[in-house]
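Look over this record before class:
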Amino acid sequence: MSHIFPRHTKSDLPTAVAGDGCYLIDAKGKRYFDGSGGAAVSCLGHSDAAVIKAVQEQVEKLAFAHTGFMTSEPAEALADLLISHAPGSLDRVYFVSGGSEATEAAIKLARQYHLERGEPQRRHLIARKQSYHGNTLGALAAGGNAWRRQQFDPLLIGVSHIAPCYEYVDRAEGESSFEYGQRVANELEAEILRLGPDTVMAFMAEPVVGATLGAVPAVEGYFKRIREICDTYGVLLILDEVMCGMGRTGHLFACDADGVAPDILCIAKGLGAGYQPIGAMLCSSEIYEAIAQGTGFFQHGHTYLGHPVATAAGLAVVQQMLTRDLVERAAEMGAQLHTALIERFGQHPHVGDIRGRGLFRGVELVEDRETKTPFDPAHGLAARIKRAALEAGLICYPMSGTRDGRYGDHILLAPPFILNDDQIGEICDKLTIAIEQGLGAI
């Protein structure tokens, strides 16, 4: 009998005992292709020698030093490396242990920034429906997924949610992609005006929406309009790249594809590639200077901020991405994966949309392609596909509630950047089995 508290008490999970490149191996010796990188985490696969060596060497030198007393060499080096490639005026890095901590820190920093500047009335946060920003209470409040929020709603701070940029479902007939993007971006301005222009502190969004929508990128021009609106009203732009960042979309920072730079940016997952738990919040020099020239103290913190072993792992991961041109590889292999998915599922009667950027791809399932009608959630289609895929030796990331937190199903794919051509075929073959078995039970 296990004493582990699992994610689902009725699950019966295999035990992972080893990793080999893009594969995980269970206690019975079965190999699973990690087609989602766990949750878009394992971008370098499961046996990268350089990262393993960096972790081992750092543990031998220094395992822990509390940032209330000391900084550390790997933390300083990783911060320097990130900022040297970061967009816009991002200039400072706040290392945490994961994505929820990064977005939580971003929300609190946005509030303190306005306080330091003498604008205590700025207290409202705006985000988007069907977004996901983490599971701590502040991050959960920012997220716009009704299913995740429902039972904790009485505990959550009030956050406004505008429409996502979800072209497949929401673009009107006769409306161009650009026109659609401008229309939904302008919802931000309308909400700022409704709340009071001098009361809004920040707008938070994912450049490519991951878990809740299934790799949905914004249309061209959307984020440029968002940036304009934020600048007009003195609202900070927080971009959450926890899932879509760190090379996964074919750009080291996902927002580079949209030609915008945020005031605060959150990363995690691929930053440590699974070798250590690590996340980070990056902020602009203007925000940092407001704190530095004011109280000098960011009223926030966690025990494992800037953990030396975690930052050593992150440093090795980013170095591997850059020296081995793995970001470019993610773009190239992502294009191949997209082509393969189109060839295999493009005319499938129950595949409505295939989308994404780089090695971050989503397949949306529908009952009717013409009307884009989703399946009845009572079928539990995503869960069926997940089980069938695991049986077939594929780890993927099916989720339900794509449309509104209840209706809709999609499959998220986020394989390691090191996959080869044959493994793209393996993904498609095993995903075919999983989809057909999942649909066959309906």
Notes: The chain has 14 helices and 17 strands. The first helix runs from residue 37 to 40. The CA atoms of residues 4 and 13 lie 11 Å apart. The two ends are 33 Å apart (CA to CA).
